[in-house]
Amino acid sequence: MTGPTVVPSETRTLITGITEGWDSASATLRLWHRDGDGWRPDGTPWSGVLGHAGAAWGRGLHGDGAPAGHAGPVKAEGDGRSPAGAFGLRGAYGYAAASPGGALPYTPVDASWHCVDDPASRQYGRIVDARTVAMDWSSSEPMRRSDALYTWVVDIAHNPGAVRGGGSCIFFHVWHGPKAGTAGCTAMPRPAIERLIAALDPADRPVYVLLPREEYAALAPAWHLPPPDAAPAK
What we know:
The structure is a single chain. The chain has helices at 190-199, 213-223, and strands at residues 13-19, 26-35, 38-41, 46-49, 54-57, 59-60, 63-64, 81-94, 106-108, 113-116, 127-129, 140-142, 152-156, 171-174, 186-188, 207-212. The longest helix has 11 residues, at 213-223. A hairpin with a 2-residue loop joins β6 (59-60) and β7. The chain is mainly beta. Strands 1, 2, 3, 4, 5, 8, 9, 13, 14, 15 and 16 form an eleven-stranded mixed β-sheet that branches. It has one domain.
Protein backbone atom coordinates (compact mmCIF):
# COMPACT_ATOMS: atom_id res chain seq x y z
CA MET A 1 0.00 0.00 0.00
CA THR A 2 1.24 3.46 -0.88
CA GLY A 3 -0.49 6.83 -0.91
CA PRO A 4 -1.84 9.39 1.52
CA THR A 5 -3.67 6.84 3.69
CA VAL A 6 -0.36 5.46 5.00
CA VAL A 7 0.02 8.52 7.22
CA PRO A 8 -3.58 9.67 7.76
CA SER A 9 -4.42 13.24 6.82
CA GLU A 10 -5.61 13.69 10.42
CA THR A 11 -2.12 12.94 11.73
CA ARG A 12 -0.56 16.08 13.20
CA THR A 13 2.34 14.47 15.06
CA LEU A 14 4.94 12.23 13.45
CA ILE A 15 8.04 10.47 14.79
CA THR A 16 10.52 9.42 12.13
CA GLY A 17 13.26 6.85 12.58
CA ILE A 18 15.88 6.51 9.85
CA THR A 19 18.44 3.73 9.90
CA GLU A 20 21.42 3.33 7.59
CA GLY A 21 20.42 -0.16 6.44
CA TRP A 22 18.32 -3.22 7.24
CA ASP A 23 20.99 -4.70 9.51
CA SER A 24 21.80 -1.51 11.43
CA ALA A 25 20.83 -1.47 15.12
CA SER A 26 20.82 2.33 15.42
CA ALA A 27 18.48 5.03 14.13
CA THR A 28 18.17 8.79 13.94
CA LEU A 29 14.87 9.83 15.51
CA ARG A 30 12.99 13.09 15.05
CA LEU A 31 9.68 14.60 16.14
CA TRP A 32 7.53 16.53 13.65
CA HIS A 33 4.24 18.43 13.74
CA ARG A 34 2.06 19.12 10.73
CA ASP A 35 1.47 22.80 10.08
CA GLY A 36 -1.05 23.22 7.27
CA ASP A 37 0.06 20.83 4.56
CA GLY A 38 3.70 20.64 5.63
CA TRP A 39 5.79 19.25 8.46
CA ARG A 40 7.88 21.33 10.86
CA PRO A 41 10.52 19.77 13.13
CA ASP A 42 10.12 19.96 16.89
CA GLY A 43 13.66 20.20 18.24
CA THR A 44 16.71 18.47 16.87
CA PRO A 45 17.22 14.80 15.92
CA TRP A 46 18.31 12.35 18.61
CA SER A 47 19.85 8.89 18.62
CA GLY A 48 17.99 5.65 19.24
CA VAL A 49 18.71 1.94 19.09
CA LEU A 50 16.74 -0.79 17.36
CA GLY A 51 16.62 -4.56 17.45
CA HIS A 52 20.08 -6.10 17.68
CA ALA A 53 19.53 -7.70 14.25
CA GLY A 54 18.32 -4.46 12.62
CA ALA A 55 14.91 -3.85 11.06
CA ALA A 56 12.37 -5.74 8.93
CA TRP A 57 9.05 -4.86 7.32
CA GLY A 58 6.26 -5.07 9.89
CA ARG A 59 2.47 -4.95 9.89
CA GLY A 60 0.96 -1.52 10.24
CA LEU A 61 -0.61 1.44 8.45
CA HIS A 62 1.46 0.65 5.35
CA GLY A 63 0.02 -2.88 5.12
CA ASP A 64 1.53 -6.27 5.89
CA GLY A 65 5.20 -6.62 5.02
CA ALA A 66 6.89 -4.78 2.17
CA PRO A 67 4.85 -2.33 0.07
CA ALA A 68 4.43 -3.20 -3.61
CA GLY A 69 7.68 -2.73 -5.48
CA HIS A 70 9.84 -2.88 -2.36
CA ALA A 71 11.89 -5.69 -0.85
CA GLY A 72 13.59 -6.50 2.42
CA PRO A 73 13.24 -8.85 5.39
CA VAL A 74 9.83 -9.34 7.01
CA LYS A 75 9.32 -9.15 10.77
CA ALA A 76 8.65 -12.39 12.68
CA GLU A 77 8.34 -13.17 16.38
CA GLY A 78 11.73 -13.51 18.06
CA ASP A 79 13.86 -12.42 15.09
CA GLY A 80 15.55 -9.56 16.96
CA ARG A 81 14.46 -6.99 14.35
CA SER A 82 12.45 -3.80 14.81
CA PRO A 83 9.42 -3.49 12.53
CA ALA A 84 9.82 -1.04 9.65
CA GLY A 85 6.91 0.81 8.10
CA ALA A 86 4.28 3.19 9.49
CA PHE A 87 2.53 2.53 12.80
CA GLY A 88 0.00 4.16 15.06
CA LEU A 89 0.72 4.62 18.76
CA ARG A 90 -1.35 3.27 21.63
CA GLY A 91 -1.01 3.93 25.36
CA ALA A 92 1.93 4.70 27.63
CA TYR A 93 3.06 2.64 30.63
CA GLY A 94 5.59 3.12 33.36
CA TYR A 95 6.79 2.68 36.91
CA ALA A 96 5.63 6.09 38.16
CA ALA A 97 2.13 6.95 39.36
CA ALA A 98 1.71 9.55 36.60
CA SER A 99 3.12 10.12 33.13
CA PRO A 100 5.71 12.83 32.39
CA GLY A 101 3.04 14.84 30.57
CA GLY A 102 1.00 14.80 27.40
CA ALA A 103 -2.44 13.35 26.80
CA LEU A 104 -1.57 9.76 25.83
CA PRO A 105 -3.48 7.31 28.07
CA TYR A 106 -1.10 6.20 30.81
CA THR A 107 -1.12 3.07 32.99
CA PRO A 108 1.22 2.64 35.98
CA VAL A 109 2.38 -0.98 36.17
CA ASP A 110 3.45 -3.44 38.83
CA ALA A 111 4.68 -7.04 38.73
CA SER A 112 1.27 -8.32 37.54
CA TRP A 113 1.48 -6.55 34.20
CA HIS A 114 2.78 -8.46 31.17
CA CYS A 115 2.97 -8.14 27.40
CA VAL A 116 2.16 -11.57 25.99
CA ASP A 117 4.56 -12.80 23.29
CA ASP A 118 3.31 -16.41 23.13
CA PRO A 119 1.60 -16.84 19.72
CA ALA A 120 -0.56 -19.65 21.11
CA SER A 121 -2.16 -17.38 23.71
CA ARG A 122 -5.51 -15.67 23.25
CA GLN A 123 -3.79 -12.59 24.68
CA TYR A 124 -0.99 -12.58 22.08
CA GLY A 125 0.33 -9.09 21.49
CA ARG A 126 -1.67 -7.53 24.33
CA ILE A 127 -0.50 -5.78 27.49
CA VAL A 128 -2.55 -7.29 30.30
CA ASP A 129 -2.91 -7.35 34.06
CA ALA A 130 -2.55 -11.05 34.97
CA ARG A 131 -4.97 -10.54 37.86
CA THR A 132 -7.80 -9.85 35.43
CA VAL A 133 -7.35 -12.43 32.63
CA ALA A 134 -6.87 -16.17 32.37
CA MET A 135 -3.13 -16.89 32.14
CA ASP A 136 -2.92 -19.12 29.07
CA TRP A 137 0.58 -18.09 27.93
CA SER A 138 3.96 -19.81 28.30
CA SER A 139 6.02 -16.65 27.78
CA SER A 140 5.54 -12.93 28.27
CA GLU A 141 7.44 -9.69 28.71
CA PRO A 142 7.19 -8.27 32.27
CA MET A 143 6.18 -4.63 32.16
CA ARG A 144 7.74 -3.96 35.57
CA ARG A 145 11.35 -4.97 35.13
CA SER A 146 14.22 -5.11 37.59
CA ASP A 147 16.04 -2.44 35.56
CA ALA A 148 15.14 1.03 34.26
CA LEU A 149 14.33 0.06 30.65
CA TYR A 150 10.57 0.21 31.09
CA THR A 151 10.56 3.27 33.33
CA TRP A 152 8.60 4.77 30.44
CA VAL A 153 7.04 2.79 27.59
CA VAL A 154 4.93 3.73 24.57
CA ASP A 155 3.09 0.86 22.89
CA ILE A 156 3.69 0.91 19.12
CA ALA A 157 0.74 -0.51 17.17
CA HIS A 158 2.70 -3.08 15.20
CA ASN A 159 0.73 -6.17 14.12
CA PRO A 160 -2.54 -4.70 15.44
CA GLY A 161 -4.47 -7.72 14.20
CA ALA A 162 -2.29 -9.98 16.38
CA VAL A 163 -1.39 -12.28 13.47
CA ARG A 164 0.22 -15.31 15.13
CA GLY A 165 3.99 -15.13 14.95
CA GLY A 166 3.93 -11.72 13.26
CA GLY A 167 5.73 -10.01 16.13
CA SER A 168 4.55 -8.56 19.42
CA CYS A 169 5.42 -6.24 22.30
CA ILE A 170 7.01 -3.49 20.21
CA PHE A 171 7.66 -0.33 22.23
CA PHE A 172 9.47 2.93 22.61
CA HIS A 173 11.40 2.58 25.87
CA VAL A 174 14.51 3.70 27.74
CA TRP A 175 17.78 2.34 26.38
CA HIS A 176 20.68 0.53 28.06
CA GLY A 177 22.97 2.81 26.07
CA PRO A 178 23.88 3.79 22.50
CA LYS A 179 25.66 0.50 21.76
CA ALA A 180 23.07 -1.91 23.20
CA GLY A 181 20.43 -3.13 20.75
CA THR A 182 16.96 -4.29 21.76
CA ALA A 183 14.88 -7.39 21.10
CA GLY A 184 12.86 -5.45 18.50
CA CYS A 185 11.83 -2.17 20.14
CA THR A 186 13.07 1.38 19.57
CA ALA A 187 14.93 2.61 22.65
CA MET A 188 16.35 6.02 23.52
CA PRO A 189 17.73 8.05 26.45
CA ARG A 190 15.30 8.66 29.30
CA PRO A 191 15.10 12.46 28.75
CA ALA A 192 14.22 11.86 25.10
CA ILE A 193 11.33 9.49 25.80
CA GLU A 194 10.03 11.77 28.55
CA ARG A 195 9.96 14.66 26.11
CA LEU A 196 8.36 12.45 23.48
CA ILE A 197 5.55 11.24 25.74
CA ALA A 198 4.86 14.82 26.81
CA ALA A 199 4.40 15.77 23.14
CA LEU A 200 1.91 13.01 22.28
CA ASP A 201 -1.84 13.57 22.10
CA PRO A 202 -4.23 10.93 20.67
CA ALA A 203 -6.22 13.77 19.09
CA ASP A 204 -3.22 14.38 16.82
CA ARG A 205 -3.29 10.76 15.54
CA PRO A 206 0.47 10.28 16.15
CA VAL A 207 2.34 7.95 13.80
CA TYR A 208 5.82 6.39 13.93
CA VAL A 209 7.62 5.78 10.63
CA LEU A 210 10.78 3.65 10.77
CA LEU A 211 12.64 2.97 7.53
CA PRO A 212 16.15 2.45 6.17
CA ARG A 213 17.37 5.67 4.58
CA GLU A 214 17.02 4.47 0.96
CA GLU A 215 13.48 3.22 1.57
CA TYR A 216 12.57 6.45 3.35
CA ALA A 217 13.78 8.56 0.43
CA ALA A 218 11.88 6.39 -2.04
CA LEU A 219 8.60 6.38 -0.06
CA ALA A 220 8.61 9.93 1.32
CA PRO A 221 6.72 11.50 -1.63
CA ALA A 222 3.96 8.87 -1.70
CA TRP A 223 3.64 8.73 2.09
CA HIS A 224 3.77 12.54 2.39
CA LEU A 225 6.71 12.44 4.77
CA PRO A 226 9.15 15.24 5.65
CA PRO A 227 12.53 15.04 3.90
CA PRO A 228 15.10 12.72 5.50
CA ASP A 229 17.70 14.29 7.75
CA ALA A 230 20.98 14.90 5.97
CA ALA A 231 23.06 12.96 8.50
CA PRO A 232 22.63 10.68 11.51
CA ALA A 233 22.30 12.28 14.94
CA LYS A 234 25.54 12.49 16.91
